[in-house]
Amino acid sequence: MTDMGNPNHRIFDPAKEEGAQPPQPRGSSLRDRIRRSEQDSGAASSLSRSGYIHNPQPVEEKQVAQERSQMMSPDQHQAMPEEVPVANEQPAPPPPIPAPPSQLRAEAEARKAPEPEAEEEPEVDADEQSAQNMVQPIGVVLEIAGSGSMIAIDLQRLSECAEDADPSIAMAGQVGSQIKIRVGNSWLLASVRNQRQDRKAGSILANIDFLGEGVEEKLTGRLHGFRRGVTRYPVPGALVYPASTADLKQVYASDGRSAVTIGKVYPTKDIRAGIYIDAMLGKHFALLGSTGTGKSTSAALILHRICEAAPEGHIVMIDPHGEYSAAFRNTGVILDVSNLQMPYWIMNFEEHCEVLLTSQGNDRQVDEDILAKCLLKARSKSRLAESMGKITVDSPIPYLLSDLSNAIQDAMGKLDKATTSAPYMRIKNKLEELKSDPRYQFMFSGMLVGDTMSEFICKIFRMPSNGKPISIIDVSGVPSDITSTVVAVLSRLVFDFAIWGREERTSPILLVCEEAHRYVPSEKNSDGNSVGTILSRIAKEGRKYGISLGLITQRPSDLAEGVLSQCGTIISMRLNNDRDQDFVRAAMPEGARGFLDAIPALRNRECIICGEGVAIPIRVSFDNLEESKRPASEDPSFVELWNQTGGEEEIVERTVQRWRSQG
Ligand SMILES: Nc1ncnc2c1ncn2[C@@H]1O[C@H](COP(=O)(O)OP(=O)(O)O)[C@@H](O)[C@H]1O
Ligand SMILES: [Mg+2]
């Protein structure tokens, strides 16, 4: 899709857009300038209700065109350009700012006085007010510094705008809202980071962060061709205007890259919010938010949209709670302990140690040496190994569990009397335990001895996808002592497959990890598991090999250091904890500050997205995801369930049976 679902997006065509307001002449003081801009806007609203801004509503444009022809004589047309100031005119000296509130108020009151005929047509009146709000400044730039600067906002204008029918204008000047500043022939778009009162002047001072700029079309003064970054800063004294929905439509219109739409841009009613898939997946992404904010549902929504856009994709999702099977019944393959069939021999040496060794400290080293020798011996016994020549303990070559057991037994037999056999017994006993425990059968079954590596990889990586591009690996049934190793094996397979497949034309793979803080924990929480190492490695190097990582967590502060900053796109839902907020702030780009401050105040199903996947940071309210595509919610309704009765004894009986048989 090339246009992010924006039905009103259209290409600028100068021939169709004559008659808009010319650029603002500059006066010498704020009052002069606001007054001048009022006069202009009075004229402008008769010329074009959309002011400077691309207004994509065709009906309204027709109306405007009619009004224009009624109200403008041909000589007026010719007179206009003379008022156009030279673009690189020297900036006015900083005005005595902010303007005395009493005067601005008086002006505003005069402005607000309704015209008699307008009273008869209240709708037009609202439009008129909206048009006026759009073309009149709300404040002025005081100070410019690097990526941010300070503006003064007129209180009266703020409250006028607050009543505007256009929600973007109504938000103008508030924390997290967008405003625009004219610089020469372009518009700069900025977001408001904070507000504080200027008691002396009775106005509001606010810091802003620049988001990007759009070119101002010479004839019409409208904004088009928005892009990230700033090439020319405004000078103190430049006027600040509210950004309207029409402006934001231009800003958020897709630039032609493929995108998926996931919700609406806040605070507008209809602008679709999209994420550029290639940019987001190319540099990893993180989805953060406290429990209950809608993380899992949003993850499902994003993945559903990606699957729709790329039905032959390859997505592996690690699902520790078994939530997602409900969501991807139709578009994915669900793999759990009943059908995963992950062969034990696919583990490398480190993973074998995690599963088979129980000792710590000095004993651990001894046990590792024994296991290394015996494992290599067992692996070398297979016919496949014979045909391959040289192999290592890490080579994913099938071996018989009994061969490993025998190798340990043999080595034990060769011991002299002085050496203790305890380490051998430890490993052997653990091996026996795994073989006989039904909970480990998905991995340590005699049935898994065949060489199924290619089939296993095709199955979990969806190669070919057959219209089901996602595999949900539900590890909720895996015994907790080996869950992290299972996740490590799966993650390492993704990485190794990509490395060994470098010479092939393999497709990229997306690995999504729920509860990521469990698997890539910070040093303080780390227990040195291989899963942390492999996921950190994928975070750092994965993109070179076409692996994309998606990390979902409610505790970003518990993630390993550096992992979050490897995520090019951060989707943050509400975070209640200060430490988590600080972490996200540190990982997000400067320009997103104004948005970041909204993180603790987001509603459920709302998020801030910033980074590669979006043109500029956006606040999005997610679409409603239909029930059949939602993950199974973890929140039971106590009242509902505590109103039901019947079959309790049978339920308990069945549960006890499953419990006892451990399967
Ligand atoms: N986009 C959405 N559409 C429909 N329901 C949603 C959406 N987002 C969240 N919900 C609802 O909100 C509740 C909590 O969402 P969930 O994804 O489980 O949150 P989290 O994973 O953050 O704990 C669920 O009952 C879910 O159905
Ligand atoms: Mg969840």
TrEMBL record:
<feature type="compositionally biased region" description="Basic and acidic residues">
    <location>
        <begin position="106"/>
        <end position="115"/>
    </location>
</feature>
<dbReference type="Pfam" id="PF01935">
    <property type="entry name" value="DUF87"/>
</dbReference>
<feature type="compositionally biased region" description="Low complexity">
    <location>
        <begin position="81"/>
        <end position="90"/>
    </location>
</feature>
<feature type="compositionally biased region" description="Pro residues">
    <location>
        <begin position="91"/>
        <end position="101"/>
    </location>
</feature>
<feature type="compositionally biased region" description="Polar residues">
    <location>
        <begin position="66"/>
        <end position="76"/>
    </location>
</feature>
<feature type="region of interest" description="Disordered">
    <location>
        <begin position="1"/>
        <end position="130"/>
    </location>
</feature>
<feature type="compositionally biased region" description="Polar residues">
    <location>
        <begin position="40"/>
        <end position="49"/>
    </location>
</feature>
<dbReference type="InterPro" id="IPR002789">
    <property type="entry name" value="HerA_central"/>
</dbReference>
<feature type="compositionally biased region" description="Acidic residues">
    <location>
        <begin position="116"/>
        <end position="128"/>
    </location>
</feature>
<dbReference type="InterPro" id="IPR027417">
    <property type="entry name" value="P-loop_NTPase"/>
</dbReference>
<feature type="compositionally biased region" description="Basic and acidic residues">
    <location>
        <begin position="10"/>
        <end position="19"/>
    </location>
</feature>
<feature type="domain" description="Helicase HerA central">
    <location>
        <begin position="261"/>
        <end position="494"/>
    </location>
</feature>
<dbReference type="InterPro" id="IPR008571">
    <property type="entry name" value="HerA-like"/>
</dbReference>
<feature type="compositionally biased region" description="Basic and acidic residues">
    <location>
        <begin position="29"/>
        <end position="39"/>
    </location>
</feature>
<protein>
    <submittedName>
        <fullName>DUF87 domain-containing protein</fullName>
    </submittedName>
</protein>
